Amino acid sequence: PVLVVDFGAQYAQLIARRVREASVYSEIVPSTVSADEVLARRPAAIILSGGPSSVYADGAPPVDPALLAAGVPVFGICYGFQAMAQALGGRVDRTGRREYGSTRLTVTEPGSPLLQDLPGELDVWMSHGDAVARAPEGFTVTARTPDTPIAAFEDVDRRLAGVQYHPEVVHSTGGQRVLERFLHDVAGIPPAWTPGRILDEQVRLVRERIGDERVICGLSGGVDSAVAAALVQRAVGDQLTCVFVDHGLLREGEREQVEQDFVAATGVRLVTVDARERFLSALAGVTDPETKRKIIGREFIRVFEQAAAEVSAAARTDSPDGAGVRFLVQGTLYPDVVESGGGTGTATIKSHHNVGGLPEDLTFELVEPLRTLFKDEVRLLGAELGLPAAIIRRHPFPGPGLGIRIIGEVTADRLATLRAADLVVRQEMTAAGVDDQVWQCPVVLLADVRSVGVQGDGRSYGHPVVLRPVTSEDAMTADWSRLPYDLLARISNRITGEVPEINRVVLDITSKPPGTIEWE
Ligand code: XMP
Predict the structure, then answer these.
(1) Alpha carbon distance 463, 461 (integer Å)
(2) Which amino acids are annotated catalytic?
(3) pLDDT at position 347, please?
(4) Where do the H-state alpha helices sit in 211-284?
(5) What is the pLDDT of residues 66-116, one digit of tens each?
(6) 220 labeled binding residue
(7) Which value does ipTM take for this structure?
(8) Tally of domains in the chain
(9) Ligand 1, residues at Cβ distance < 6 Å
(10) Residue 400 counted as domain residue
(11) Which of 40, 97, 130, 509 is most buried (CB neighbours < 10 A)?
C-alpha cells in the first residue's frame, strides 16, 4: 500500500481518498507508529500529511530520518513538507506570518517531474505559519508563492518530494495531478486499484473466511449494507440470508426497492420483518428526540435478534451437520474504522452514536467486506455488482428514519404526510439533476406547529415542512445547499398542492455547526 502518515490534521483521510482516486491503494497510519513498523509493511510510497501548526510546537511529531533513507518514495505535504526538510538537514523558520487560504503559486522549475504539465501560475490552498527557509542538500526548489520562497521541492534521484500547500483539497488547482505524478511517475506505482480488482479480491477473502458456514446480513435500504450483502452473495450464494426490518419509518418506495429491485439484481434470499405496528406503539406519546432514538434503537435490536434466531434455527434444521448461522455481515467503512481507532491506533473515538446499529455482544462473528473502502469506492463496487442506480446513489438516511424527522409525536398519519412531501422533494431534485450536488436533503415535518393559510377556496390551518438540503464531504460539517429558486418554487407548489395537511414550505439555511443536519 501507499501509507499516509497522519500527523493529526483532518487531511489524512482526504489524502488517502485522493490516492485511491488515483487508482492506488492507500492506508492511514498514525505518526506514533515507528519507522521500522511502517517500513515493515513494505509501502510502495509514503505520504506525510499536514499536521500541527509548527514543527517547533510542544510535542510536534518529528519524522524519523530512517523513513526517508530507506529508498521508499516519500511525499511531504504542509507540515509533512517542513518535517521532511528538517529531518534531512534543511531549515524551517518561524516567520511569524500566517499564510492561509488561496494563494498564487509560481512554478520556478517548469521541467520538474511533479509540476511539469501544470500552468506556470496556479491557485493553491495554503494553511501554515512556519516556512522552509533552506531546502536540504540535493533538493531542487520548484515553486514559490509571494510569501513563501520555498513552496515545493524535490530530489528526483532519491524520489523524495514535497509541497507546502494542500494538493488534496479541491481548491488547489492541479492538486490531484501532482499526487498522480508523484505516485505513477516518480514512485512508479501502476494505477491498478480498480473496482473490478477490489471486487475480485474481496469476494475471494469473504469466500475464504466464510467457507461453507451460514451467514446473515441486515439490510437497511442504504448503499453500504446493500453493497456488502451483494458482495457476500457473490462470494457464497445462498449461504447468505438477508434480513430487512420494516420499522415503518422508511420513505415512500424504499421497502419495494429492497424487496423487488435489490433482490432482482442480486438473487439474494431475503426475509422481511414487518414491524411497523410494533414501532408505532413503542413510539406512541413520545416527543423527546433522545427518547425516540433510544426506543427505535432498542426495538430494532430486539426485532433483528428475533429474526436472526429464526434464520439460525431454520439453518440448523436444513444443514446436515446442524450448524446455525455463524457470521454476520456489516457494511462498516474505512472512515469508521479510522475514526474508532480500529487497526490504526488513532485515539479519536467516533462520537456519533449509530442508532439502527446492532449491539456489540451479538453471538455472531463479523464479516466486514467494506472495511478498507471509502464511500466513493463502495458506490463503484455497487455498480460493478450490477446494483440499481437508485440504491447506489441513494443519499445518506438515518437509521431512525422519519421518526426523527417528525418534530413531535410519531403517528401513522403524520408519517403518511411526511412521506408524501419527501417523495415530492426527491422527485423534483432528481428531475432537476441536482442529486450529485447535494449530500442529502432531510424533509422535516413540524407536526406540532400550525399556521394559517389560504388553500383552494378557504382558510387552511396546516403544518409546515422544512427543507434541509446540505452539501458536505463527510457529514461532520455541512453547509446549506444553494438550490435553484425555480426548483424550490416547484417543490413548494407541489407539496402545498398535493399534500393537504401541509400549507407552508420553509428552507433551513443553517450550516453545521451550529445546526446539525437532522433536526432531532
Ligand atoms: P447530524 O444530524 O448529527 O447527522 O448532523 C450527521 C449524519 O448522520 C446521519 N444520522 C444518522 N445515521 N443513525 C444513522 O445511521 C443515526 O442515528 C443517525 N443520526 C443522524 C444524518 O442523516 C447525517 O447524514
Answers:
(1) 7
(2) 78, 166, 168
(3) 33
(4) 223-236, 254-256, 263-266, 276-283
(5) 999 999 999 999 999 999 999 999 999 988 778 888 999 999 999 999 999
(6) yes
(7) 0.99
(8) 3
(9) 354-356, 396, 398-400, 440, 475, 512, 516-518
(10) no
(11) 130
